[in-house]
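Morning. Coffee machine broken again, so started the prediction first thing and wrote up yesterday's gels while waiting. Chain of 414 residues, entered below exactly as on the submission form.
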Amino acid sequence: MITRLRRSSRPERSRLGVRDLLSECAAGVLQRPARSALTALGTVLGVGTFVAVLGLTATTSSQIDSRFNELTATEVTVEDTGGDQPEFLDNAFPADADSRIGALNGVRAAGVYWPVRLGPEELVAAAPPGVGDDGERTEVVAASPGVIAAAGPALEQGRAFDAYHDRRGENVAVIGSGLAARLGVTTLETGPAVFVGNQAFTVIGIIEDVERKADLLLSVVVPRTTAERIWGGPDSGERAKMLISTDLGAARQIASEAALALDPAHPEYFKVIPPPDPRSLRGSVTSDLNELFMLLAGICLVIGAVGIANTTLVAVLERTGEIGLRRALGARGRHITLQFLAESGALGALGGLIGTSLGTVTVVVMAVVRDWTPVIHPATVLAAPAIGLVTGVLAGLYPAWRASRIQPAEALRR
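Came back before lunch.
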């Protein structure tokens, strides 16, 4: 009987059931709705940025894929190497190189070009030497009409020179809009000219943008026959090249045929550069974008976690009396820990759900505005709320531990 009495008189240790934990968690969150909303805001921003960044990365990567497929997969470059003894052959390209390559099936445009070697006194200016400014050192490119067509220009004004200008060796030029602005060429209605040294060239076209060979925008492009008449042809120091634009899917076939089409007797005079493999190219670019944006998303999540930890720690300090009362009524330290972890985890999960929704909407809106196809991986949407939950729990570890260390007597005296 004594033994039974001792056992029955021993106080029963307190317990915290799952239902009680959830109710306490809900009460702690709902009692201070404004603070809870601000606490969850950090996770909303972090997870929302995480989802938006990954979604926009996937979306832009798909656009980059198509861009690379359309441009790099349709460009072939041919370099004149001159064979084993290039010093004895300044220009291996035949006079009709454009038409020879243009006859291949799948070629859209092709042209030969080379940088003109200018003298130290031959500067580019909008007026003859000695009149106005001194001019500037600008590259002059000799090109056949096919080069500009293969570059895919968007003309701001005028037109590009054609076979007629090239055949007659006309003193005409096409320049980029940036160079035109520096030279003060604003309109073609007055027939403006640019001077390369003492040579005047009538500007017949201003290029706003090009799809390929962007350095043309910073150069004075003249017909190759005109350049040959004034400065001579290419030499062993500045050898000629050919730019070829092809139909999608035909570039590698054209690359295998170009050298033989240019000179069946000496195809070794040419080095043909086919387009890079689109899969490896876009894979490397996509990998770089993913690494960059994942770093940004991680930083946002860290900021959100710091916000939750700070707010939860302040809540612990403000609720010291409540914690002491609970401890005095029998709550154990781990019960207090679980309570605050549940509150921070709930706020993190709620912020994760809202952030996932906002991030998804951001990706869709951006894709619609840019006329893209939105791409969001399902794993991102499924993992984002869980990331918010984990972020909230991790952020609440230290405040919950601090709360569990509060002694009842000390807390009640405050």
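Residues 135 and 379 are 59 Å apart (CA to CA). Going to sketch it on the whiteboard this afternoon.
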